[in-house]
Fold this sequence. Notes:
The protein is an alpha+beta fold. It is built from 2 helices and 5 strands; from the N terminus they run ααβββββ. It has helices at residues 7-29, 31-38, and strands at 50-53, 63-66, 68-69, 76-80, 83-86. It has a 3-stranded antiparallel sheet with strand order 3-4-5, with no helix packed on it. A two-stranded antiparallel sheet has the order 1-2. The mean pLDDT is 90. The chain crosses the membrane at residues 6-25. Keywords: Membrane, Transmembrane, Transmembrane helix.
Amino acid sequence: xxxxxxxxxxxxxxxxxxxxxxxxxxxxxxxxxxxxxxxxxxxxxxxxxxxxxxxxxxxxxxxxxxxxxxxxxxxxxxxxxxxxxxxxxxxxxxxxxxxx
Length: 100
């Protein structure tokens, strides 16, 4: 039919839509795939960066959390599994830490 597009263009549209759907599903299913495709490593921490956290077995599932700066302590904080955490960078001393 003269109204229908070329067979190659139909195949290319199908391939594009399928790839797009698979990309979104892989980002939902695999945290490693999402981290590889959508994020890049950083040399130092700053507010607005994202951290990838993987807990021990049977202690929850991995997640990617956003770093924010605390208004009280001026250190970096993030929320993982409904708990707030404060980042202690290497070389910093924190009297609240055990053996630290």
